[in-house]
Design a protein that fits this description.
six-stranded parallel beta sheet, 6 strands, about 10% strand
């Protein structure tokens, strides 16, 4: 997230801004309730464990209330900032159709989970969340951040993300914070409630972690070089891929009829497009051009 490394996302940032111009980004994190696997899985837990059942019920009850507040917030912001676009990005494990149906009548609200969230954060003017780790990413990019906390409920309070940014309890407080950010172009750097202990939880809060990552990578490379490591051939990789496909199609009907929960998960799980060969090669080309060095 360092400024000198943001070239990596620049193409996506430019594309997003060309399509949506200036916008408010709202990141949601309600997969425990709005699960892409369906309500049957979201409300399933071990009935024999009364403690787990009680905790699950308390958590889901608080999540229902918090989700309702967020829906109300989006409608409120859509009305107050009718000249701006509002991008709502559900968590990857959420059911995106839920939000698309609810906000279909709001012309300036766009629901999408396309691509990585990082360029969307960098392209936005303000980010709003509750209990979402994207708050940490926003904090590190020094973008204006609003933590919307309409209810005080420990069951849904994700402490570290919720200590970042300007904390607001009502939609009007959110509006006021947004207006202040837009007027002053505040980068949000000083807006947090972090304690000294919180800074110890993530090294990036104090300084860049790249030197540590490079040190670990170099150590791992040295370990591999000391071992007799042989990379798999293309033929063996293709054979393994064929084996996995065959196993999938052979076990699919068995899982469907005898393991319905596992079938539901498999049905709704999609391969991450960020890991596609085309995307990986484009990123390698970008790095090669930037560093003037061919990468394999």
């Amino acid at each position: 997230y360092e400024p000198q490394n943001r070239f990596y996302f620049q193409n996506e940032i430019d594309r997003i801004r060309s399509e949506f111009d200036q916008f408010i980004l709202i990141n949601t994190n309600f997969s425990s309730l709005n699960d892409s696997y369906g309500l049957a899985l979201a409300f399933s837990y071990d009935e024999e464990s009364t403690v787990c059942a009680h905790v699950a019920e308390q958590f889901l009850a608080a999540t229902v209330i918090l989700l309702g507040y967020f829906i109300n917030l989006v409608c409120h912001l859509s009305d107050r900032f009718c000249d701006k676009k509002i991008i709502l990005r559900p968590h990857p494990s959420e059911n995106i159709n839920f939000y698309q149906t609810i906000f279909s009548r709001l012309k300036n609200v766009h629901v999408t989970n396309e691509g990585s969230v990082t360029p969307w954060i960098m392209a936005s003017q303000v980010v709003i969340h509750n209990g979402c780790t994207t708050a940490i990413e926003t904090f590190l990019t020094k973008k204006p951040l609003i933590t919307y906390i309409p209810i005080e409920e420990s069951a849904v309070d994700i402490k570290l993300p919720n200590r970042l940014g300007v904390q607001c309890k009502t939609p009007e407080e959110v509006v006021t914070a947004i207006c202040k950010f837009l007027e002053t172009q505040n980068n949000g750097e000083q807006n947090n409630c972090l304690t000294p202990g919180d800074y110890d939880m993530l090294n990036n809060f104090r300084a860049s972690s790249f030197p540590l990552l490079l040190e670990q990578a170099e150590r791992k490379i040295d370990q591999i070089q000391c071992q007799s490591f042989c990379a798999p051939s293309n033929l063996s990789l293709k054979c393994h891929g064929i084996y996995l496909q065959l196993r999938y199609y052979l076990t699919h009907p068995i899982i469907k009829w005898f393991f319905p929960k596992r079938y539901l998960i498999r049905k709704n799980t999609t391969f991450n497009k960020a890991l596609s060969k085309k995307n990986i090669m484009s990123k390698l080309d970008l790095l090669s051009q930037h560093f003037n060095k061919k990468l394999k």
